[in-house]
Amino acid sequence: MLKAGSLLYATVMALIIAILSSSLMLFSYFKEQEKIVYLTQEVLFRNALSGIHLAIASDSLISVGDNKYFDLYGNNTDSVVIKKMNWGSYQVILSKAFLKSKSQRKAALIGSVPDSTCKSALYLQDNGKPLTLCGKTLIKARVQPI
After folding, report:
1. How far apart are CA 32 and CA 127, in angstroms?
2. Which of 100, 98, 102, 110 is nearest to 52 (CA)?
3. Would 48 disulfide with which of 1, 16, 106, 121, CB 3.0-4.6 Å?
4. pLDDT one-digit tens code per residue, 21-69
């Protein structure tokens, strides 16, 4: 004969197994949701960077002070708005990639190769503080011998 307490033990064990299995299913679901958000942000980041590269590669495609909308791959899911502005002797390119309600922005400061008559340089005033950069910043320079 079974004791009356064995039904209680079986019920408690079934409850523990149900809680563990449901927590594993919830963990899997939330991990998948996090993966989808990450992949969406990655696609938006790459599209915004592609917008910057598109504006740099074809100078006549976007005029200064103009906003242009581009569908990068022609499938209406990779949309980018590119804006080009003057900032002194430099140009600022702003690229905004968006997908539904998500968006990602990138900006680039573009200089030009000076001609032989124009000697231009970027001057940093010495206030006793170093030049500080944030994020992923890349400075490329070509030094020409005098």
Report:
1. 50
2. 110
3. 106
4. 999 999 999 999 999 999 999 999 999 999 999 888 887 788 888 888 8
Vertex 49: Cα angle to 47 and 50 (nearest 5): 60
User: Which residues, at least 6 apart from 86, have a Cβ–Cβ distance to it below 8 Å?
Assistant: 64, 65, 92
CB 109 within 8 A of CB 90: yes
Residue type (1 letter), 9:
Y
CA angle 12–17–23, rounded 5-degree value: 125
Tokens of 132: 């500080």
Task: Check: pTM over 0.85? Answer yes or no.
Answer: no
Identify the CA nearest to 51 among candidates 84, 87, 75, 76.
Answer: 84
Residue 131 sits at the vertex; the CA angle it makes with 88 and 137, to the nearest 5 degrees, is 75
Give the SS3 label for residue 20: helix
